[in-house]
Design brief:
Helix content is 28%, strand content 23%. The protein is an alpha+beta fold. Residues 362-684 form the Piwi domain.
Length: 727
């Protein structure tokens, strides 16, 4: 592609808006685009639009979508701190934890001072003083006269400072700091908050921006008219004309696959309707067996409520096809949330004594009412004790409805090594094109990065692979830590020198999964399909080069000349292409939410001019406007037809274990995301600053020089790895 030429034209179209609006990456934001909503803790959301010039099959296209993001409210720093820390009493000193939080939030933010009437000066915050303002002394003149900040402000500006027990903001360098009292500073308008939002803020921003397809399409149309491309002087100068209408594209709706359930149920097969179905009259195709289980509660639920919940859950598991012993190995244990680790070890020890070393198959955990314990429970169970666990929130467990119990049963079954459903065509000879013909392994891979501002936390790579053929529903998951924000998965294949034996040993996640597939199925994979999530366009060739090479080497290390053909597909959810039904409100064109139908596939006009890619909306919308997933085939040695790969991908979306709905992303990629997200909890517990978000390790307060050493993840116990524990 003539990338530079396209970039030049893109820059031309960005010139006008970048003078008038706040630019964030490829989007523009302004308070003129409508209501700015308070999203809590000192932040507000601004509206704007995304714009990108893209080469497509029909020539150059302008991709436009409405967007929203978080900005600092232009308020005094005192007000920001009170809102950010949720403080009622501003007279009490800030503790160390609060100081670190404020330092992280405000580092790099521009403020203007308001203590001198005639002049406003701007500063960039570099830190926060370790001591309160009342104790802060600094040299005032060349002779070394020292004065407190409070005295200085009184004498120099006749300004009486009130919040003397709070620290000062610091600007400038550590060697020549400028101290700024918080009350004398106001945050400059138009600064984006780039760090991770908490759950409440995310909910608020979604509530403010969530629009049904018809409204969103209207908003996009209005935004395009508002931008007045025809009057853009720069566009005119370069002879660029922009058509102000949306483009109409042809699409197909792929049929849903038939699903197979157990012979003993009333309904042995099921035809999903508009992307969903249910478990009524059906039994799981392979029900797992749980003979040895226990339950522990960290909540304030009454013992009889917990007992009733366990009975209801066991009954649901048995009704849907599992074999679940009604009696636990131990009586239900109750423990306090501040004693999680010991309580879990105690359950493990007691069951081991009773069962003479036979492992516990499942631990049902009722979580505390206050959030924040889930990660610790999973880490202890999966990496220390080797227990498969199912966590439940007390608000659901105390009043469980049938749908909730059914969903939990689906999760428990795959954690017990069972299968919930299978594609009906999997049992027909050559029923699934390409996959049924020869033993095929399907991989999913993802890398999750720490949130912005966490400068020292590792990125986490996860790879899952199907372990059953021809069914393709069970996936084994592996995780690995790697350097901060590194996109390429490092541990796909590795060669390690063993100093004791003086030889080199082959390893890595792909190799381990290929060996596990052969152990489970007795066959070696003759075809590999690799769905790779989390790659941006700029990284395509880089990732393909390294990761294809790793797949090749992993195969060759198992057997000389073993080179199964590989199809390498990048899965992208984070893009701004939106598909709307041509006529809103027509039942045959939309689902209940007004979105395009599940199974809608587009591979003409708006896709890449020369490469193999398509947009697939495999799920039914629930809220807002559905985002189709973009699948881009970077390498294809299996010579898939477009139709075969689109159908396979769509069909796989109906095999996701955790619900009876078609999901929006192909399950192997979804599972890899879940596994990576789970592993984030393993490293997190050790250094959390008490923030409510995964991945908020407190080490980031220290500025590091050079690369940070990657802390390896604790090993997941083998018995946990054998099942889909990340579900």
């Amino acid at each position: 592609m003539p990338q530079e030429t396209i970039q030049v034209l893109d820059v031309v179209l960005r010139e006008s808006p970048s003078w008038n609006y706040v630019t964030v990456s490829r989007s523009f934001f302004s308070t003129t685009f409508g209501h700015r909503g308070d999203i809590g803790e000192g932040l507000e959301c601004w509206r704007g639009y995304y714009q990108s010039l893209r080469p497509t099959q029909m020539g150059l296209s302008l991709n436009i979508d409405i967007s929203a993001t978080s900005f600092f409210k232009p308020v005094t720093v005192i007000q920001f701190v009170q809102e950010f820390l949720n403080l009622r009493d501003a007279s009490r000193p800030l503790n160390d934890r609060d100081r670190v939080k404020i330092k992280k939030a405000l580092r790099g933010v521009r403020v203007e001072t308001n203590h001198q009437q005639d002049q406003i000066r701007r500063y960039k915050i570099t830190g926060i003083t370790p001591i309160p303002m009342s104790q802060l002394i600094f040299p005032v003149d060349e002779r070394g006269t020292r004065m407190t900040v409070v005295q200085y402000f009184m004498e120099r500006y006749n300004y009486r400072l009130q919040y003397t027990s709070w620290p000062c903001l610091q600007s400038g360098s550590d060697s020549r700091p400028v101290y700024l009292p918080m009350e004398a500073c106001k945050i400059v308008e138009g600064q984006r908050y780039s760090k991770k939002l908490n759950d409440k803020q995310v909910t608020n921003i979604l509530r403010a921006t969530c629009q049904r397809p018809q409204q969103r399409e209207q908003s996009i149309r209005e935004m395009v008219l508002h931008n007045k491309y025809a009057e853009d002087k720069f566009a005119q100068e370069f002879g660029i004309k922009v058509c102000s209408d949306l483009v109409s594209v042809p699409a197909r709706v792929l049929p849903p696959p038939m699903l197979r359930y157990h012979e003993s149920g009333k309904e042995k097969t099921c035809a999903p309707s508009v992307g969903q179905w249910n478990m009524i009259n059906k039994k799981m195709i392979n029900g797992g067996t749980i003979d040895k289980w226990a339950c522990i509660t960290f909540s304030r639920m009454r013992p009889e409520e917990v007992h009733r919940f366990c009975c209801d859950l066991v009954q649901m598991c048995n009704a849907t096809g599992m074999s679940f012993c009604p009696r636990p190995v131990l009586d239900i244990r109750t423990a306090t949330p501040n004693n999680i680790e010991n309580a879990l070890r105690d359950v493990y020890r007691r069951t081991a004594e009773i069962e003479k070393g036979k492992p516990l198959q499942l631990l049902i955990v009722i979580l505390p009412e206050v959030s924040g314990s889930y990660g610790k429970i999973k880490k202890v169970c999966e990496t220390d004790l080797g227990i498969v666990s199912q966590c439940c929130l007390p608000r659901h467990a105390s009043r469980p409805n049938k749908q909730y119990l059914e969903n939990v049963a689906l999760k428990i079954n795959v954690k017990a090594g069972g299968r919930n459903t299978v594609l009906d065509r999997a049992f027909v000879r050559n029923g699934i094109p390409f996959v049924s013909e020869v033993p095929t392994i399907i991989f999913g891979a993802d890398v999750t990065h720490p949130p912005p501002g966490e400068d020292s936390a590792s990125s986490i790579a996860a790879v899952v692979a199907s372990m059953d053929w021809p069914e393709i529903t069970k996936y084994r998951g592996l995780v690995s830590a790697q350097p901060h924000r590194q996109e390429i998965i490092e541990d796909l294949f590795s060669v390690i020198k063993d100093p004791q034996r003086g030889i080199t040993v082959n390893g890595g996640m792909i190799r381990e999964l290929l060996i596990a597939f052969r152990r489970r199925t007795g066959r070696r994979p003759e075809r590999i399909i690799f769905y790779r999530d989390g790659v941006s366009e700029g990284q395509f060739s880089h990732v393909l080069l390294h990761e294809m090479d790793a797949i090749r080497k992993a195969c060759a290390s198992l057997e000389e000349g073993y080179l199964p053909p590989v199809t390498f597909v990048v899965v992208q959810k984070r893009h701004h292409t939106r598909l709307f039904p041509e006529v809103h409100g027509r039942r045959e064109m939309t689902d209940k939410s007004g979105n395009i139908l599940p199974g809608t596939v587009v591979d003409l006009m708006i896709c890449h001019p020369t490469e193999f890619d398509f947009y697939l909306c495999s799920h039914a919308g629930i809220q807002g406007t559905s985002r189709p997933t973009h699948y881009h085939v970077l390498y294809d040695e299996n010579h898939f037809t477009a139709d075969a790969l689109q159908s396979l991908t769509n069909n796989l979306c109906y095999t996701y274990a955790r619900c009876t709905r078609a999901v929006s992303v192909v399950p192997p990629a979804y599972y890899a995301h879940l596994a990576a997200f789970r592993a984030r909890y393993y490293v997190e517990g050790e250094s959390s600053d008490g923030g409510s978000t995964p991945g908020s390790s407190g080490q980031a307060a220290v500025a590091r020089e050079g690369p940070v050493e990657v802390r390896q993840l604790p090993n997941i116990k083998e018995n946990v790895k054998d099942v889909m524990f990340y579900c």
